[in-house]
């Protein structure tokens, strides 16, 4: 599993390491200070990095209609509209939802069969999505019905991004579209975008 391998490497070579995928170097960072530095320097350096652009292209396929994928210039122009949405006074009305979902996640962790939980991603993603549904969409996640299907599609898309990243011949969309994984991607994207439109 590439995802687990990545975290094993992060633990072994913390806080920064480089991986070569054929002829392309990928620098992997984990420390918050390094991430902040990259965010600041992104406009100066990363726009010209083919590796960064490749990963952004694959990621863009996944989140093509999400705010996360908006380019910096567009983000700067629309930031004034979005910032009030995340103002502390507005977020205060959702404190009960945050507390309830946090307690639910804690109870789920306590009730697991294993005494040690190695992978928190499942728990965090489940309750984060529940919180987003209740706060941003004003609906209970249980009313949406297809929530578990959506979660599975998101996890599968992350796997597909990593799968494509290490296979240069699949970086071309027209080749990838003819593969079984390309058809899987279309199926998962349909689920993800369908859920977002609900």
Automatic annotation (TrEMBL):
Major site of localization recorded for this protein: endoplasmic reticulum
Cofactors named for this entry: heme
Name by which UniProt lists this protein: Cytochrome P450 4C1-like
Protein's UniProt keywords contain Endoplasmic reticulum: yes
Any matching Pfam family: p450
GO CC entries: endoplasmic reticulum membrane
Protein source organism: Pogonomyrmex barbatus (red harvester ant)
InterPro entries linked to this entry: Cyt_P450 (IPR001128), Cyt_P450_sf (IPR036396), Cytochrome_P450_Monoox (IPR050196)
